[in-house]
Structures are given as C-alpha cells and as structure tokens.
Amino acid sequence: MSQSKFHLNRRHFLAGTAGLGLASTLPGLARAQENVSVTQFIWTGAQEPVPRRIAEEYVAANPHVTIDMIAGTNGATFPQLQASRDIDPEDPLLNLGFFNMDATERGKLVDMWLPITPDNVPAVANILPDYRQENDLGAFFCMDVCGLVYNTDYFDEAPDSWEILFDPALRGKVAMFDGFWPGNGLVSTALINGGSEDDIEPAMAIYEQAARDGQIHSLFTSNSQAQQLLVSGEVVVMPHFRGVALPWRNGGAPVDYAVPKEGQVAFPEGFQVVNGSTEAQLDVCYDLVSKSLEPQNVLDYCQTAYVVPLMDNVDLPEDMAADPAISPEAIANAQKLDYAKIAANGPEWSRMWNRRVKANL
C-alpha cells in the first residue's frame, strides 16, 4: 500500500474551522513554545480518522506546531524509518508513529525507540499490566486479532481451524501475507504442529509442500491486494486481521472474520516515540500520546478501527462486547506470540521462505 503525506498547521486547520467557531475552544497541551515541526506516522483506512482529528485539534490550539502526517503501513514505513536513521540518527524520517509488536521488537534491536513513561505520559499507567512494555518502550493501548478472513459467498459456514488453509478442496484458493509472520499463519501453524518461535520448521515444511502442491494462489503485501482477491472470489480464505476485515464487511463486501478453534493471534498496537527527535519534538510527541490515550479518544479509535482497548479505564460498549471474536474467552484463548523471538529469527525465516515457499509458487 502506498504512503500518503498530509501537512497540517494552524493556518491550514483554522481556514476550515473559523466559520464553526471552534478556534477558541480547542484544547492545547504543548509544553514547548518554540516553532516546532513533527512528523507523525499513522495507519491507513479505518485507523486514520481519530489520529487525524487529534492532530487537527492540537495544531489549532498550538500555533507554533506543524504536524506532517505519513499514512501507510508498518511493512512499508519501518524500513524507511530504519534507513533514515542509518543515514543520520539525529534526523529520523518521523518522530511519532503507530506500530505493531513485530516492528516494535525489530526497532528495539537497533535502539529505535524512546521510553513513554507515566512521568511524561501519565495515562500510560492505565494500560493493562500484561501489555506494558519492558522499560516503557511503547504505549500499547489497543489490540487487533488475526484469524481467518473468508468469502461469505463461498462458505455456507464460517471456517473454524487454521488447518483449512491446507485443505486440498481449496487448492489454489488460499492467499497470505508475504513474509509477515504474525499475520500469515506461519507461527500459528508451527504452534499447533509441535513447533514454536524457536522451531519454525514444522510450519515451514507445511507451507513449502502447500506451495509445491498449488495450494497457495498468491502472496500479497497490502490490504488492498488482499481485499481484491477475496471480493473477486479468486481467493476464498486467508489469514488476516479482524480490524481490517470488518470495515470491508460493513462496506458491503462478501467477507467476514472467523476465530480459529486453536486460537486467534493477539496483536497489540500502539505508539512509539523515535530516538533522534529533538527535545521540542519530544514535548509535542508526548502531548499527542497523552491526548490519544484519553478514554474517549481510545474508545473512538477502537470503535472506528474495530480493535480492542487495553486500558483499565475504558469499557467496551455492549455492541462491541457482544462480538464473540473479542469475548473474554476468545481473548484468553488467543495465541500470545513471542514477538522478540520473531524479530530475532525473522531474517533466517525470510531466507527459508524465499527459497522454499516463494520459489515453488
């Protein structure tokens, strides 16, 4: 998925809000008063509206702040961020971003992040203890889940097992992410076949045979590619995320999300502040995180992006709580992957994947 950039400053925003009388009422938190420009990375699609609104409100209340927004995916943006810091660690591509645990652990290996602590963002203390990050490297306030996304025109009943990906009756009708281990079923397949994050071979052997047998239609690298494959009926089932699939479904596409009986993948998401940012930029970044972690903003984000809050001061509305995919039982049964081991082993898995899976498609 391609990235898009959005430049936001006070003049830009007030031009659209002056007639509504909003300029004098919007809140401001900025601690730094010098002119400062911050680049913030957000995800595309249903994940965009709330962070854009928060940025607009912040800029309207803080005339010295300019926010450039990059909208994209972790898969595309993280390598660019890493490359920018390789060139100049004091001039990163962005200062604040929304990242998953996979990118977070890879970033830890190269000293990418700065702490987000209760001292600079008090609301971090409300994140559930199981999801607080070691040394406060990240503020993970919500969680998506990865299971089976399927074409409802093809299936009379929802698929209920990771093993359906390898059902010979679906030969040539299965697709998956290329090299995105938490989201393409590889680790889940390892776990249910005697493997682990330390021993991926049981799953890699299954995927290699599936490629040789023509089971796998294709590998995709973006959500738009996945959506097109499912809606067209070329592919009828794939590993993917609830928070991505439900907006497609609610937009009228013949797709839905199902929880595998072996457990869906828990996929925490949240903010990272980037090492190399200036003190003035850090002040703005911490303000933006604080604003984003206010209970109503967390709830707005979770409802818009179809994810689960991980804050002890945010309760799910009844309509969200009724979804079996995010019931307490389903969340308790979710596969909690070791993302640090995935990050460490990922390069070797990529070599195996390219040689044994991609080469045989």
From TrEMBL:
<dbReference type="GO" id="GO:0030975">
    <property type="term" value="F:thiamine binding"/>
</dbReference>
<dbReference type="InterPro" id="IPR006311">
    <property type="entry name" value="TAT_signal"/>
</dbReference>
<dbReference type="Pfam" id="PF13416">
    <property type="entry name" value="SBP_bac_8"/>
</dbReference>
<protein>
    <recommendedName>
        <fullName>Spermidine/putrescine ABC transporter substrate-binding protein</fullName>
    </recommendedName>
</protein>
<dbReference type="GO" id="GO:0015888">
    <property type="term" value="P:thiamine transport"/>
</dbReference>
<dbReference type="InterPro" id="IPR006059">
    <property type="entry name" value="SBP"/>
</dbReference>
<dbReference type="GO" id="GO:0030976">
    <property type="term" value="F:thiamine pyrophosphate binding"/>
</dbReference>
<dbReference type="GO" id="GO:0030288">
    <property type="term" value="C:outer membrane-bounded periplasmic space"/>
</dbReference>
<keyword id="KW-0732">Signal</keyword>
